[in-house]
């Protein structure tokens, strides 16, 4: 395997200038544009979260007005989901790695890739405009008829912003699907694909099949507000529960848009850090597709208490249990991969083990919530809040951070502080659990979500939660410091700092604009750590 | 479109365009009659026929690769899932008695 480092003509420094970045068609540069953009939105979403946790330090609801509090949790959700979590791994790591992992020079449609970033920025800007023109207080779920009839906030503007951003997501999905089908190097068969590619492929299917529905649904809300049409307003012959069906038809699969790429990252990291082939490769690959498909059949579990038919509730509850199967396949197979592996305890591993613990708790509490009877007690309590944060923050963001550290040397050509990364992983793990575990207890005791005041006896758990949020924020701020430092002062990264398998580790760090100097031929399976043979480049 | 796709004659496009116009007229005509319960199914049937003509001819699916056909059919399957599981709610709501109703 080549061990070239710091090529003189890496994608980062050829050609120069702001315009060369803003008009780039290079998937790696677009990935970096996305990385910067989503980091900014992660910080903005985090500020809204800080506002929520500060208010909940005291039972009285005395820091913000209830109206402002409604806006804070709404904007926290909208920004984190639509502008951070959905694009996070696919648009950054996915954009950067998908072509390289399959031996291609770029994605199938480089211009469409750039358009997707611009659509993301335009959608985000429009949505931010809503923040400054009245805010948004509907919750990120935009439930009708409140959103379409009653709310006095900038619902229409925010809905248009989300609508535009949806197209960004669709274009990314389209690009990944076509790239996976058409751009694979000779010898890169479907069952030699890295599992990260399988995950992003499955994610792309969800993006393409689900996103148009949410785009149209929020547009219908905007139309009902602006034109007085009666889709969801009962007074005009509409049905508010229809909105919930349409909304969750996308938004439940959207959970898998957020977590499936994370699962792909974990598969890569587990194999690389345990120096072993992933246990049951084809099962892990197909479990991604199974999650993508089953994810579309379970949305009704969000409507158990929304006057949905009890019979529909039964059907949705049973199908919901099925999603646990492919998720468990992944978790058990990662564990089996680690078993008797030659595990390296470099910092990416720390993020991986954090993910596995937190995702397992998040997944298992999902089984609680999918159970029809128990759900009635837990609906709209902090138990739900804790559950989905364990999946999205404990799962998706831990995986994102793990992947970002793992591929950072490849993306930037610089090494970072391993100690800093380990410290950050521990801070995030401890801070996260301190923030959200008390919320399971609060929810079980009956504390409803989305209220800014609560009875005195719940204060201790809420203070613990708010303190945890502080530790969590520190854990996320630390990488900003040492990764920024590494950009300018980090030691030069070798081509393969982790001794990992995969095409991305056969080319220099950072790669050149067209990734590979010569045609790529692949003649071995993915994660072939037993073999002494190398992937031939050239 | 695949490399060996035949060139579609202009007359096909014209015929389909005329058919779409006729079907649009039909949509209007059937809307002036009251077919009772069949009102919505009839309107939907005409709309589906029009959409199918657009997809098969104007979008060139008929002359395209099997993969494209799989994609189009999958799209319809997903639409059926959305409608089917939503109706799973609407059609069973009346099955259970509600106190006081």
Average pLDDT reading of chain B: 87
Distance between the termini of chain B: 58 Å
Give the % helix of chain A.
55-70%
Q: How many DSSP-defined strands of chain B?
A: 0
Residue share in helices of chain B? 55-70%
Per DSSP, the total helix count of chain A is 15
Helix-strand topology string of chain B? HHH
CATH class of chain A reads: Mainly Alpha
Helix/strand structural class of chain A: mainly alpha
In sequence order, what are the helices and strands of chain A, one letter per element?
Answer: HHHHHHHHHHHHHHHEE
Largest sheet of chain A: 2 strands, antiparallel
- The CATH fourth-level homologous superfamily of chain A: Cytochrome c oxidase-like, subunit I domain
Structural class of chain B: mainly alpha
Shape of chain A: globular
Number of domains of chain A: 1
Strand content of chain B: under 5%
Number of separate structural domains of chain B: 2
List its traits.
heterodimer; A: 538 residues; mainly alpha; Cytochrome C Oxidase, Chain A; two-stranded antiparallel sheet; 2 strands; globular; disordered N terminus; disordered C terminus; B: 101 residues; 3 helices; flat
Structural account:
The complex is a heterodimer of chains A (538) and B (101). With 538 residues, chain A is an all-alpha fold. In chain A, 67% of the residues lie in helices and 1% in strands. The longest helix of chain A has 36 residues, at 66-101. Chain A is globular, with a radius of gyration of 23 Å. With 101 residues, chain B is an all-alpha fold. Chain B folds into two domains: 1-64; 65-101. In chain B, 66% of the residues lie in helices and 0% in strands. Chain B is built from three helices and no strands. The chains are: A mainly alpha (538), B mainly alpha (101).
């Amino acid at each position: 395997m080549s061990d070239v480092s710091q090529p003189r003509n890496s994608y980062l420094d050829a050609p120069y200038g702001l315009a060369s970045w803003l008009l780039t068609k290079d998937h790696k540069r677009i990935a970096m544009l996305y990385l910067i953009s989503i980091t900014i939105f992660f910080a903005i979403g985090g500020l809204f979260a800080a506002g929520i946790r500060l208010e909940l330090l005291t039972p009285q609801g005395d820091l913000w007005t209830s109206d402002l509090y409604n806006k804070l949790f709404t904007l926290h959700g909208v920004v984190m989901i639509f502008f951070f979590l959905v694009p996070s791994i696919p648009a950054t790591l996915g954009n950067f790695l998908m072509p390289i992992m399959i031996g291609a020079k770029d994605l199938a449609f480089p211009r469409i890739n750039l358009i997707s970033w611009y659509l993301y920025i335009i959608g985000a800007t429009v949505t931010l405009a809503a923040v400054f023109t009245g805010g948004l207080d509907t919750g990120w779920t935009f439930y009708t008829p409140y959103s379409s009839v009653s709310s006095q906030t900038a619902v229409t503007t925010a809905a248009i912003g989300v609508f535009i951003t949806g197209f960004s997501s669709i274009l990314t999905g389209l690009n990944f699907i076509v790239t996976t089908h058409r751009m694979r190097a000779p010898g890169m068969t479907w069952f030699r694909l890295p599992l990260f590619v399988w995950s992003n492929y499955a994610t792309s299917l969800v993006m393409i099949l689900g996103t148009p529905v949410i785009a149209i649904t929020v547009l219908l809300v905007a139309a009902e507000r602006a034109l007085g049409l009666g889709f969801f307003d009962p007074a005009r012959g509409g049905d508010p529960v229809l909105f919930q069906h349409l909304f969750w038809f996308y938004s439940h699969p959207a959970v898998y848009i957020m977590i499936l790429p994370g699962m792909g990252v974990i598969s890569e990291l587990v194999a690389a850090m345990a120096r072993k082939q992933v246990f049951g490769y084809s099962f892990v690959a197909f479990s991604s597709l199974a999650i993508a498909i089953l994810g579309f059949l379970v949305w009704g579990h969000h409507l158990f208490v929304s006057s949905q038919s009890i019979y529909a509730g039964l059907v949705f509850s049973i199908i919901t249990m099925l999603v646990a199967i492919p998720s468990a396949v992944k978790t058990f197979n990662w564990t089996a991969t680690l078993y008797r592996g030659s595990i390296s305890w470099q910092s990416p591993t720390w993020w991986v083990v954090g993910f596995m613990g937190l995702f397992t708790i998040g997944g298992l509490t999902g089984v609680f919530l999918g159970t029809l009877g128990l759900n009635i007690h837990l609906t709209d309590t902090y138990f739900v809040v804790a559950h989905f944060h364990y999946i999205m923050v404990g799962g998706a963001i831990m995986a994102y951070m793990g992947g970002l550290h793992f591929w950072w040397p490849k993306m930037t050509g610089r090494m970072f502080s391993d100690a800093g990364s380990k410290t950050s992983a521990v801070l995030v793990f401890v801070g996260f659990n301190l923030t959200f575990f008390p919320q399971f207890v609060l929810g079980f005791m009956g504390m409803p979500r989305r209220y800014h005041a609560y009875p005195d006896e719940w204060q201790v758990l809420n203070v613990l939660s708010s303190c945890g949020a502080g530790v969590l924020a520190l854990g996320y701020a630390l990488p900003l410091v040492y990764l920024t430092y590494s950009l300018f002062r980090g030691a030069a990264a070798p081509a393969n700092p982790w001794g990992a398998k995969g095409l991305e580790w056969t080319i220099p760090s950072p790669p050149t604009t067209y990734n590979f100097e010569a045609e790529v031929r692949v003649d071995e399976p993915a994660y072939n750590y037993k073999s002494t043979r190398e992937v031939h480049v050239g | 479109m695949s490399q060996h796709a035949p060139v579609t004659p202009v007359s096909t496009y014209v015929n389909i365009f005329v058919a779409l116009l006729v079907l649009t007229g039909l949509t209007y005509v059937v809307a002036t009659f009251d077919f009772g319960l069949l009102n919505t199914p009839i309107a939907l049937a005409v709309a589906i026929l029009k959409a199918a003509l657009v997809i098969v001819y104007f979008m060139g699916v008929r002359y395209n690769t099997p993969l494209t056909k799989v994609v189009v059919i999958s799209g319809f399957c997903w639409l059926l899932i959305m409608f089917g599981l939503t109706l799973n709610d609407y059609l069973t709501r009346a099955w259970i008695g509600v106190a006081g109703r």
